[in-house]
Amino acid sequence: MFFDRKEELKALLSLISYEPNMITIYGPINSGKTVLLMELTKRISREFAIFYINLRGRFINSYEDFMKVLFSVKEGSLKELLVDVLKSGLAYQGIPIPEKVFRDLIENKNGDPFVFLEDYFRELRDKERKPILVIDELQVIGDLKVDGPLIYKLFNFFVRLTKETHLVHVFVVTSDSLFIEKVYNEAMLQGRADYFLVDDPKGGILRPQGKLELLAIRRALEKL
């Protein structure tokens, strides 16, 4: 159920009207994080294209498993899929990719998926379609390793997409307080992200937190 959160939606709509940024949305399970973002997708203008990746309930035990959730294999060429995204501007469950390209990138390891994604998003941006990438329950892959922690590589990629290339708004959503502390302690998020705390729906508020220090994050999480 979506509780009336006009102020919160207004804040998020305002946020995506500015230069791309990485936004960490955190709060307890069933506090309305996912529903709030789904409502956002209904209200944004058609100049955006949202790619929504929900890791909740997914068995992800390897890099390949994660890529199968991140991408959505489709029929057609890459050009045709991009044209479809440009025409529709709708929310996608996964990033559309041709089967052949997926096999080359993931199964044959012929190329870098991050480079592919950057080019993919740049193509959309060049055609006046602003990408938004949402990763829900990112803590699911918190312990996954690919020549080191995958989560570290992923956050560095998010920083590149937002702070360096200004191509994509990235929303990282989590209900795990230990995860948010871990990534902050390891300097993945310090000074690189803005934070939103979603309280219990009965409280009815989403508070923009700004660039919080670790102590402030802990205090906010202790209230959940």
TrEMBL record:
<keyword id="KW-0547">Nucleotide-binding</keyword>
<protein>
    <submittedName>
        <fullName>Hypothetical atp-binding protein</fullName>
    </submittedName>
</protein>
<dbReference type="InterPro" id="IPR051667">
    <property type="entry name" value="Archaeal_ATPase_domain"/>
</dbReference>
<dbReference type="InterPro" id="IPR003593">
    <property type="entry name" value="AAA+_ATPase"/>
</dbReference>
<dbReference type="Pfam" id="PF01637">
    <property type="entry name" value="ATPase_2"/>
</dbReference>
<keyword id="KW-0067">ATP-binding</keyword>
<dbReference type="InterPro" id="IPR011579">
    <property type="entry name" value="ATPase_dom"/>
</dbReference>
<dbReference type="InterPro" id="IPR027417">
    <property type="entry name" value="P-loop_NTPase"/>
</dbReference>
<dbReference type="GO" id="GO:0005524">
    <property type="term" value="F:ATP binding"/>
</dbReference>
<feature type="domain" description="AAA+ ATPase">
    <location>
        <begin position="19"/>
        <end position="203"/>
    </location>
</feature>
